[in-house]
Structure formats: structure tokens, C-alpha cells
């Protein structure tokens, strides 16, 4: 067999493996993990991130059969890791029989293609793994649409040119021959189709978002509490306990992608809705944050955020930091929040831990989602917080006051709005801190007098 034919056979075999990895419906494959350690990196954080990557792989139903970390001054532009390390991984495949290689960092399309050619195995990066999990767990139309947009944007620049090699080998003159370069044209066609598909999906998502906004307006007279936190921190289990629901709460990363809304049970004279949201993770792909922005915007419209933290995890402080960073990205950094240290019942030998956490995090609570007395105490804390820390105000805004309109829509929940010939009248709800920061100086004496009379 000629060298050209051998190369074609290897290329097509690699393409078949890529397609199998991309389109599979269940796990059972083996992965080899790779990371790069740069001079400014913390080796402990590198190891923790690899452990988390392994958990992501297992969430797919796959097995981690090996791991390697290369120390370098900077990444290699063409291959990310060095050529010697790539050859080492290729040899490891003969011994460990893994199906694909997973990098803990995000790789460029060029780096993926070059590494696949060197190692002769499909390459996934951290973003690719998370996307596969999201595709596996997306159930509602909104979640499936959001994930599909992120997936298409991820794979568009990574379209394989494997079949271009095959077309070029068959190109040339003669009967039935094909023109050289047809492969490039086909990839351009495929990418254009993806672009059109993404545009169509975005239109679908806009319709879903409008429906969501209408539903939110219909719930304006109810208190809106949103659960946020690192993936697998126990948000859904806690929501089930608070609302006496039975949502799926498996011990698995990214089990919840859809926003579920339930009513808190056991409180009087207050209509409190609780919304569960997608969990966060370190290095959450920007494409996913962008695609799920409409869902995550529930956090910016909340009256109160419950930041759920798995206190049994040794990196819980990092998890708090990651969640805070994502909340900043989606415009929810100013929303009042309570930090909930969950799974306290699993902490052994640290009886003083709740007091230590209370000093470090004044607005917090330690609890177990499985203890009825803890849940009752937590419900009371939520009710008291909403009653004492939220205010309702009425503002009269002229048509030309764009600054005030922006403040209202950005920092409050609009309960009622009515436009007259001269102005807009807004009844809004916000936290006391937001009121003091943005609105107390601009409220006129006439409005204050009107507010007193209306009450």
C-alpha cells in the first residue's frame, strides 16, 4: 500500500473516531487527561482542576485511565504542549488503550487539529467536555436551544478537513474526476449552514425569552428567590426541601440545566417563589455563559440570591469566588444574598466550624438539607430577610429621563408601570442597599409626600 493510501486510511480512521466521540449517546469510553503547568500556576490548583476534569469525564459515563502534566515556560502555539510530550502520549495509548485525550485548558482549532494528527486520537478540551455534558442533560426546549447554539459556535471553526485529503487524492482530470479544492468549498458551505442554523436558533431563543419575560411580569407581586452556586453543591436537594418538591437531584455535575420554579411551603402571608439555576464551575466556557444568559438573568431580577456552598469540599472558598465572578458577568453582583453552607451534617470533628463561618461570612447559615429543623430555621431566615431588607417605592419619571429609567430597569423589580401623557409611574421593589445607593438622593419631596398618602 502506498504512503498516500496509508495516510488517507489513517485520516479516515481518525475522522471515524471523532464522529463516534461527537455523536455517541452513552459513555463507556476511556480518556487520558493532560494539563500544562506554567511558571505562575499553582501546582495544587492544577491538581484540583484535574480532579474536577476527571469528575466531568465520569459524568459522561467514561473512565479516566491516565494523566500527565507538562511544565513549560509558555504554551507552544501550534500544539500547546511540546512535541516530545505529544509523542509520549501517543506511546501511552498503546499501553492504556484510551479512546480520546482530554486537555484541562481550552485549545484553539489549529492546536486540536495538529495534536490529533500527532497523537492519532480525537482531542477534547475542557470546553468540549462540558458541552457534551450539557447536550446530554438538556431537557427543555430552552435548554436544548441554548446548548445547541453554544455547540455549533464551538465546532464551526473546528470542522475537520479529513475528507478534503480524500477529495484531493481523487482530484484531477479524466472521467469522473473532481476538481482540486472542492473540499475547501464544501467546508465553507458547511460553515455557512451552521451560521444560518445559529441565527435561526437565536430567533427561537428570543421567542422563548419573551415568553419568560411575560411569565416574570405575571409573577411581579411575588417574592423571587434564586438558588445559585457551584455545580453539585446541593441546590436542587435544598430546593426540594424548601418547596416540598421532587425534582431530580442526582450526585452528578450539571444535573440541572433548566430553571425550575417552585413555591416555598410553610410561610404565611408571603408568596415566595424559588428558582433553581444551572450550576457554575471554574473556567465555565464563555459561549455557555452567553448562551445561558437569558436563564442566568433570573439572578439579576431576583429579590434574594441563596448562594449554596458545599462545605465538605476542600476548595469551597474557590467555589464561592467562581460563583461571584459569574454573577458579576450576568449583572447580579448587587443583588442581596445569603450564603448557605450546605452538607454541614457530613463535616466530622469540627464542632466550632459553624461559629467560625458565621464570623467570616456574617450573612450566612449552616445547614443540612435533610434535617427538618434546619429547613424550618432557613425558611424563617428567608422570610425575615425579605421583610426587613426590601423596600417598595413609587417613582414618577418623565419621558426624557433616560438615566432614571435605566436605573429602574437595571436595579429594581418593576411591580407596576403606567405611562400617562406626561410621565411614567413605576411601582418597584429593591433592597435597602440598592435604594440608598441609587435612588434615595433623587426622590423628590413631592414623591415622598405622595408615597405617604398612598400608604
TrEMBL record:
Mg(2+) binds at residues 236, 256. Residues 223-390 form the Hflx-type G domain. Its main location: cytoplasm. Residues 191-218 form a coiled coil. It is found in: Cytoplasm. GO terms for molecular function: GTP binding; GTPase activity; metal ion binding; ribosome binding. It holds the Pfam family MMR_HSR1. It comes from the Bacteria. Keywords: Coiled coil, Cytoplasm, GTP-binding, Magnesium, Metal-binding, Nucleotide-binding. Gene3D superfamilies: 6.10.250.2860, GTPase HflX, N-terminal domain (3.40.50.11060), P-loop containing nucleotide triphosphate hydrolases (3.40.50.300). GTP binds at residues 229-236, 254-258, 276-279, 342-345, 368-370. PANTHER family: GTP-BINDING PROTEIN 6-RELATED, GTP-BINDING PROTEIN HFLX. Monomer. Associates with the 50S ribosomal subunit. GTPase that associates with the 50S ribosomal subunit and may have a role during protein synthesis or ribosome biogenesis. Belongs to the TRAFAC class OBG-HflX-like GTPase superfamily. HflX GTPase family. This is GTPase HflX.
